[in-house]
Amino acid sequence: MSQEPVIIVQDNRGDAPKKKRSRTEEKKKDAPNVILRPESSNLLDDMLYPMTAEHFLKNHFRKDAVCINRKHNKQAGNEELAAYICDTFLFGLNVKEIFAETSSENVFMWLRPPPSKTNSNAALNSVEISDPESAFALHQSGSHPAYCRAPPALEQLLVGSLLRATGLGGGHYHPPHADVVTIGGGTTLGRGEVELFISTSSSSSKSKDNGSAKKHLTGWHTDFQENFTIQLSGVKKWTLRRGRVRHPLRGTTPHYAREGSVIENQLKVARLSCMSGTTTSQETSAYGFEYGENNAYGPEMTITLHPGDCFYFPSGMWHKVETVEPGISLNVSLMGTTYAKLFSDALQHLLVGSDEGWREIVTSRPGGEQDAAKHLESMMSRLPEVISDFVNKGGAQNILPPALQYPPIGNDEDDGSEGSIDEASEDDGRENMASDEEEEESVEPIGEKEEAQSDDDNSEDEDTPTSGIIIPMDHFVGPEGWSCKQPPNTKLAKNPLATLIAMEDISQHLDTAAATTTDAMTASSPSGKKYILNVNFAGNDMYESYIRVILETEKYGPMMDWYLAYEEKGGDFDDDEMNTNLTLQGPPPCLFYYGYLSWVKI
To answer: Around Cβ 286, how many Cβ atoms within 10 Å?
Structure first.
């Protein structure tokens, strides 16, 4: 890895004189469209050109910052490259419209530090303005730079596309501001935001008092997200340096003015990162959240971003940013669930289902019979056996079934979700479904979002257990490259974190009014019986599942009912004869993909 923090790549499109090309040459895509389109399926390639996304992910992602400098003149196309985003999604960079349509609840306005605090590391103060009109008036005065999230449509496209391209969160994304049904909902592994940083005309003007520059500057800090920046207008200067802590935890950003309680949290989180042994230095005890030699290394490096330039910088890299010419920059911040969070949720699910003692409320009366520490010690002594049994039944693949490792399938949009922003229709709504004639040619079948609806406008349809992604089991086709073929020396195993529920079991407990509102609440349909599959749901207080889908079948009904009955008896397919018979029957492929079944070593 290079000591210099930034890899600079020049995009020289337009330098070579035009010449007539052969038909073969014309068919080759030697350069992407000069216009960046958030809805493009090749967005990351387009942003990084002439570097390929494949090269970036293999050699630089989460290692180096990468700056793509365009030709800084109108003839080279950099103006047009950013213009599509500006005109189509950002109202021609009309700040008043942006404030009115932001995804944020509030617009944040930066306050300039007092004249006595003009050093580059002075802490920033900001205020939150809930009224967009007031925010615009303050910004228009020329003294308050601002930032807010992009409008929902743009945020959804950029975050969804870049999560898919990078694989962060398995490429999964649940847009928080759209009516979209996904297999994970609130537990979806990938998340992200798109922020707009809007400087003012006085950000680079001269002070009337002493003629000194009053450029807006954010001091040295690090981010815990993976970041992609597009300079839409204006010019910014970035200075960067490598940080010593890899994969920093959230909560250590040091460049805002803070209260004592906030500083305490930042310090304890920063020190936890050092104690984990994930720093690049042998000396970890001296690490703090302020910029210095103890937590940064290598040379400082400065780059300048002009309109159309694209820039990636990894989490944990120190940077400061200065406005050279007023304008607007767009930053996509990608984040997601950590391995620690994923595993700890699964472990809690496993424990509360394995022994009633783990479900007991902590009770302690010193000197009496209730000694909480001794009880916990007794429970923990059995942990190795519980975990060993879990590993033998699939372990990691139970926590991360294929459905969480592959990007969502059956979605024509690049928003990272299984469902559609618009309501799914009967014609375009079924995930992984193909007719008998089309099944062999199907590559990326489409998914369906089905929602229970009521004639009552005040009904709480979002809470009904009968809404969700519908999987037609009989015609399921997984993503390219995935297979559920049995490997040698393996046997069938049921995921201890998974459970099936027949839709009829829910329907029979609904009151009469609710049970007759729509076909979505019925146990069967013209397409067959329905079952709900939930995977890894007992690790949070709301019992939100990492995977939740509705399975629909005509063909596999008897087999699914057998699985249900056996599960209710606590069966786990350990009997050799039974396991062989189940294997010979050919279990439905979608049960492997969504994590109910797996192959484990004998």
So the answer is: 12
Strand-pair category, 547-553 with 468-472: parallel
* pTM attached to this predicted model: 0.84
Burial per residue of 316-334, b for 16 or more beta-carbon CB atoms within 10 angstroms, e otherwise: bbbbbbbbbbbbbbbbbbb
Is 580 strand, coil or helix?
A: helix
Q: In this structure, are residues 154 and 145 in contact, taking their beta carbons and an 8 Å threshold?
A: no
Do 2 and 64 form a contact (C-beta atoms < 8 A)? yes
Hey, what amino acid is at 9? Answer: V
CB 560 within 8 A of CB 553: yes
21-57: pLDDT as tens digits: 454 444 444 555 557 899 998 999 999 999 999 999 9
Phi, psi of 297 (to 5 degrees): -150, 165
Residue 514 pLDDT: 54
Question: Rounded to 5, what percent of the chain is helix, strand, coil?
Answer: 30, 20, 45
Amino acid at 96: K
- What string of DSSP letters covers 68-133? EEPPSSGGGTHHHHHHHHHHHHSGGG-HHHHHHH-SSSSEEEEEPPPTT--STTPPBEEEEE--HH
Length of the chain in terms of residues written = 602
**How far from chain centre, in Å, is Cα 40?**
18
Question: For the chain, what is the total number of helices (H) and then of strands (E)?
Answer: 18, 21
Tokens in use for 491? 């046997």
Q: Report how far Cα 308 is from the mean position of its chain's Cα atoms.
A: 25
Residue 106 C-alpha from the chain's centroid: 22
∠ CA(327), CA(331), CA(332), 5° rounding? 155
Q: Which residues of the chain have a pLDDT value below 50?
A: 18, 21, 23-29, 74-77, 118, 203-213, 278-285, 411-417, 419-465, 517-520
Element (H, E) at 353: helix 339-354
What does each C-alpha distance from 258 to 125, 253, 286 come to in angstroms?
9, 10, 21
